[in-house]
Structure formats: C-alpha cells, structure tokens
Amino acid sequence: MSAPRTPPPPLRPPALRPGDTVAVVAPAGPVEPQRLAHGVRVLESWGLQVSVTPHATASHLGHLAGRDADRAADLQAAWTDPRIAAVLCARGGYGCQRTADLLDWRAMAAAAPKPLVGFSDVTELHRLFAARLGVATLHGPMVATGAFTEPRSAAHLRRVLFTPETVRELPLQAAALTPGRAEGVLAGGNASLLASSLGGPGPVVPDGCLLLLEEIGEEPYRLDRILTQLRRAGVFGAVAGIVLGDFTDCGPPQAVAEVLHDRLAGLGVPVAAGLPAGHGPVQLTVPLGVRAALTAAPGAGASTLLLAEPPLSPRAAAEQDTTDHDRKDTRPCAS
Predict the structure, then answer these.
(1) Catalytic residue IDs
(2) pTM of this prediction?
C-alpha cells in the first residue's frame, strides 16, 4: 500500500507594484462608509488603484454586508478578475462562512493566485483558500477598520505587500507557555472561528502546522470552552507548535493567562506568546501558508518566529509560477 501523497506547499502569490489595481470586498459584516473611504485613501497613497466591489456598503439583516449571494459574487469576481492584483477585506464581524458556501471553488482555483488580506471572521476564508486553492494568504489589518490606519500596522502590511523580502521575522514579546522548537506552515487565526468551522468542509488546520490563535470579547470561561472544543476535536493534536496573538477584551489578563496555560501548556508542543496580531492596538501581518521556525523561550521577548521564505513571491518568479500552473495544475482539487 503506497503512502499518501503529501500535498504541495501553498503557492505564495506575487508581490504588488505601484500602479496595481486592488479590490476591496466585504464578505462578512456591514461596513462603515467613512472608515472605508479613509482606508481607500491609504491604499491610494501607496500608489495603488482601488476598486471597491459593488455591494461593499450594502446591509442585510443588520449584521451582514448585503445578501450572501451578492457578497460571494463580489469576492469571486475580484479573485477571478486578472486585472485585480490583490483582494483586501473591508472588515470582519460575521458572514464569511455563509459567503464561502456560495463560492464556485473550481472557478476560483482556475484563477491566478493573488494576496488575500484580512483577519477575524476572515479566518474561514484563510482556512478554505489554503485547503481548496492551495494558496498562501495574509492575516492582516482590514481596510475599513481602525487598525488599517494605525501607523505600525499599516506600514508592516505595506512592507509585506510591496517588499516581502524585508519581512523574515515576527516579534514574540511575551514569555513562552511551553519552551521548545518547531517548524511548520503558519495557519489559523481567530480561535472561535476555528472552533465554529468544526464539521464544515476541509480540515480546520493542516497537519504539522504552527497554529496562530487570537481572540476578542470572549470571557475566560467562554475562551476555555472554545479551546476545550478544539482540544476535544483533536485539532491541537495535529499541530507542531502554537503561537498566541492578542486576546483583546477577554477579561482580566491574569485570568486569561491562566486559561491559556491550563488548556495549552500541557499539549507537548512549544507554545509561544506575545505576537502583535489579532484585535490588539498593533496588528502585524502574518503570512499564513508560509513555512516558519518557532523557538519558544521562557524569557519575555526571548522567543523567535523566523519565516523560511518571504510572505509573497517576487513578481517575476511568481509570474513564472503562474505560467507553470496554467500548464499543469498541482493545487488541491476545489470540489
């Protein structure tokens, strides 16, 4: 009996250049027009042309940015349009799971890869773009949120998009919960979104990954429940290591730290902490689908997270990869 074929590593999309056109989509919650306009001006100041999708400022049921079919159509049109160099999400909230169910994944897989940027509810898109398209994505600040105009967050995203070769390490500012070393592909995102994806299509995370976890607004007992659900489902048993981002407005910091230690420290894998990613005041861009090496150390600021390769491919190399892909598609089947 032959061993199962190891899937190819996710394909890194090409970096951006000034003059590129990017699309802003709203696959989840409703968008505040003034914040969207501010974020668009930031993108334009980077030398980008910006296309805001038709339903980006729509609303449905009070908590969705338009109807499911419209949000899915906007996302799919942006992804499959060869004139669009990147797709940036306007905000999170809720709705990406409903959007994902209406995407034509075969049509999406036929398109050349491009950067997809977002976090929070967009965790579901990160997960499925990896599983169904075999494409690396960017866990980063969203256009119609305050983080997009926070100077350090915006500057880091700009570096990742335009000069990815300058981003090879991500800071870990807290002491590790469990010391050790591990290597793997970065994956994950919002903990509650990962838990709610159990039972949905595709794996929650790839085997052997370095799992990023962050959260907002979940009291310690609810955070305990989320982590326990992931633990009971075997998600943590498949990971090589864990990287903790921000746990914002989740109750008293000491209580949050105790829950994280109780649920994660005994898993037998390195657990590092203090990555400025998620819903905190500074939101660095984390490349999901890119291999990295984690060293989790006891002292605050002593841990390291080193990328094995830049978050995005150089433009010329990526264009050759796309040509090769057109000749023979080796990415996962988008059933």
Answers:
(1) 120, 214, 279
(2) 0.93
